[in-house]
Amino acid sequence: MLIGVVLLTTACGSRERKAERLHRKASQAVKDGNLEEAVDLFGEIVEKYSETKAADRAEEDIKIYRGLVGASENYPTWQARDEMIVTARAIERYRNRNRKPPDGLAALVPKYIKAEPIDPWGRPFIYYVKSGGRKYVLASLGADGTDGGTGGASDIVIENGRFIKRGDAP
């Protein structure tokens, strides 16, 4: 019986050490900026070593780093929307002063904005005037640079000061 207790204690200690080693590896992945790898490693700890202290910590870590992975994936879309709002406000100020929207975004520089805006993917925003020169459209075609798409590739469109497509990021 004593041998069984010693073997069980040794096995449990070994599992805890293995889980701790894997947790250190996952933590290093976080430090290296490899959040997806870290989430996978934390998941492996929870799956393989569920009764360990490392697994308890890994469950909490998964929640944090999954959220960060999602936020970093959505950041360019949020950034595009923010830049489009700034640009649309500049267009509206121009329109209030000149009774019509500008023919192009270059007309806003430098009085209303510092430079012609580009989306987070390095492309200029699409801009055109319609309805006899009274309404405008401002757009970004998302990560893929093509019409349509889902996720980060979704189009973002402001028409006459209002979003009509917001992209797929929350």
Summarize the structure.
The protein has 170 residues and is of the alpha+beta class. It has helices spanning 2-31, 35-48, 53-98, and strands at residues 126-130, 135-140, 156-159, 162-166.
Describe this structure in words.
The protein has 170 residues and is an alpha+beta fold. The protein has two domains: 2-72, Methane Monooxygenase Hydroxylase, Chain G, domain 1; 74-166, Glycoprotein, Type 4 Pilin. 53% of the residues lie in helices and 12% in strands. It has three helices and four strands; from the N terminus they run H-H-H-E-E-E-E. It has a four-stranded antiparallel β-sheet with strand order 1-2-3-4, with helices on one face. Strand 1 (126-130) and strand 2 form a beta hairpin.
- Bulk shape: rod-shaped
Poorly predicted regions: 2-11
CATH architecture of the largest domain: 2-Layer Sandwich
Total count of helical runs of at least 4 residues: 3
Number of strands: 4
Spatial strand order of the main sheet:
1-2-3-4
Strand content: 5-15%
CATH superfamily annotation of the largest domain? Glycoprotein, Type 4 Pilin
CATH class of the largest domain: Alpha Beta
